[in-house]
Amino acid sequence: MNHPHEPATQRVQQLLERIERVLSDALPTEHQSPQRLHAAQRYSVLGSGKRLRPLLVYAAGSFLSIPLERLDAPAAAVELIHAYSLVHDDLPAMDDDDLRRGRPTTHRAFDEATAILAGDALQVLAFSLLAADGPHAPSCAARLKMIQILASASGTGGMAGGQALDLAAVGRTLTLQELETMHRLKTGALIRASVLLAAACSQDLPAELWDSLDGYAQDIGLAFQIQDDILDVEGEVADLGKQTGADAARSKPTYPSLIGLQTAKARAQELKLRASDRLKVLRGDAELLHWLACYAVDRRV
Q1: 269-290 per-position pLDDT tens digit
Q2: How far is Cα 62 from Cα 191, in angstroms, rounded to an integer?
């Protein structure tokens, strides 16, 4: 699998197939009680999604020469946290969305109570995967560090805090710094954690290498959210699998609304180039990391 001569797109496809198997195996089957809750969990996670976060775990881990088997748990864990956040964000009390990834949101396909419970269960399953011992698990110290990284990225200093700022910003005009802070927390924190989870699996990683990977992750995390803002303006529903124009309809502050569409595009490109530049000073197979930096900004979905 880890062969530099393979095209990046081929390696990405192999990793997408791998993470789908890992997630399916990690989730309870629909035949286990409570069946409806387990069905909602599997519906929320499997069969769709860009899988950017687990791909980043695998890509950073491959760069650090970490076996894929050791990366499966953190790759699945970060995707489960992402999936839970989407289930909860779509609820009527939050963003009140009816469509996600081209199909009804979890609370529409099931019901609100089941969606809340499904999100809760996905969150704790993520940490259970990180804590579990096994033949491919990293050291206890590494597992504890990964739990800390993912918890910090998910809480009030990360994703949940960013969502709170996002909800509070509706109808307000934010400064560019306030908007960037919100994006770095709401979306960027979990993308950053994806890279750092892999780094935590590497023993005796030099501080300068950790910092370079961290900077790369922060750049593409912000770039990814800026591109999301752009696609909400000019994307197609058929491509995105969700309604466009929702941010404007809710009077939510975005990069295009604050600095204009073209300036937002330029900012995303600037971050992509800076992320790629950080990789140039690193020794190792960074092809997948570079590919993902380009994908974060150049994607149309």
Answers
A1: 999 999 999 998 777 789 999 9
A2: 17
